[in-house]
Amino acid sequence: MAEWITRTIETLGYLGIALLMFLENLFPPIPSELVMPLAGFTVSQGELSFVPTIAAGVIGTIVGAFPWYYLGKIVGEERIKAWLDRHGRWLTLSSKDLDQSKRWFQRHGKKAVFFCRLVPGVRTLISLPAGLSHMPLPQFVLYSTLGTLGWVMLLTFAGFMLGENYDRVEQYLAPITKLVLLGLVLTLILWIFKRQRDRRGKG
After folding, report:
1. How far apart are CA 82 and CA 84, in angstroms?
2. Could you report the per-residue pLDDT of 43-88, keeping only the tens digit for each?
């Protein structure tokens, strides 16, 4: 994959960066942790300029967030509620739980979108609840852009400073990504366990 990413940037320049970051949001296995540091290294070689490189990365990311955002809107709350009422017992979830999560997102949605754009592993997923909760598109774009700008600048600058060792950025971030995902999984497991215990107590 690294060779394909390298060829894409070498061949298409800024358009290639935007395309890769767009695909990264649709297919998370394409790592921004490799794309933007490589772009930063290319900037250090004088083949690209810093600001247009950042802009390409941000634009590609935001455009790539739209499919997930609109998927949440199209699938719709009622369909998901109906599915949860039929099958959610296997996950100890119900339509009421969805209502609670929606209220939480309405209270914290702006911060959630902003900070999740800075977190490896969940950057893409935050677009789905934003669409499901019908977060206003201008707000979604604004806070996604601000969070993405910080992430893209960090990766690009790291690649610029590391030079030919730009690929170490992904190595450094990989343990962090695994810890974040592990934390999310454990949180979900604990939450499900707590709900099961509470329901047994009520029964």
Report:
1. 5
2. 988 899 999 999 999 999 999 999 888 887 887 767 766 765 676 5
